[in-house]
User: Fold this.
Amino acid sequence: MTRILIVGIGALGGTIATRAINAGIPVWLATRSTESAEALRTAGLSLTGIGGSATANSLQVAAIEEYRATDKFDLILLATKAHAALEVAPLLAELLASNGTLLPIQNGSVPQILGDQLGRSIVLGGLSNLGATMVEPGVYEQRNAGHILIGELAGGVSDRVTRVTEALRGGIEIRVTPNLPGSIWAKLLLNCSVTTIGAVAGQTMRQYLTSSVGQTVFRQMYDEALSVALASGTQPQRMIVEPIPPGWQDKIVPGQEYNAWVDQIMGTYGDIKPSMLQDFERGRLTEIDFINGYVSQLGKKLGVPIAMNEATTQMVHRIEKGELRPGTERLDELALVPT
Assistant:
């Protein structure tokens, strides 16, 4: 039997854990504190929304530190926020069995960073397009019929990808890609533009794209991120749309084909409240350093212009500190960034 540990029982980890346990997959859960673990053990997990209702009781859950004294795990699924993932990953490497796998599913650059730090023989890349909300600890709502995408950080399909897929099958949909770097970049392109712009504007994509300023910021943000991706030698994979907009040659070309391309993105993300905006509202740190901040950092190394992503990263940090507030005036400021 594959021993599976899920670390981080927030919206994403909680949804995956509930589906897995409900499907009869034996998993262990790890929380930050003993108090959090005891609360979940007492109340159990419950999930509503897309995919139907599910519950999970009789949980095997403990604070992460308590697992130091237990048996090792064959698979550790890391579902925390990005900053927490980097902090806890060295401990998780110690909890892996021989030939065990750490599967991070955070946004942005986290899988690559952990692969470089811990070794790609340990880290398997993953990303999630599951939409979920934590109503309160242990209570979740699934917002879409999404899936987890996994693959080797170096590309290709390996035996361990097959093993991990089989271990999680039945709980949540798992898809495999031979071009995980391209898939990570495909999601990163949308995170950099759709999610971050909506967060600083305090609006959904459908709302901010009604203004010419919002349209200008979106195009420049996307152009920069795509230029960095291609300069890095990665070919982004199709996710919701083809990652390279119609007619693109170093920059987006507005027109009927481009508008249809945007409409495809809008069909999925147009009315979703950005998760980064929810972080602002809850006073939490965002994952900006692993999204637009990562694009800026890599762009500088590659000599690719990244002025819009750099300015946006700095703006998000100022909002986190309470120096600024989200609003449409933030887009007016970004529109003044030199191209």
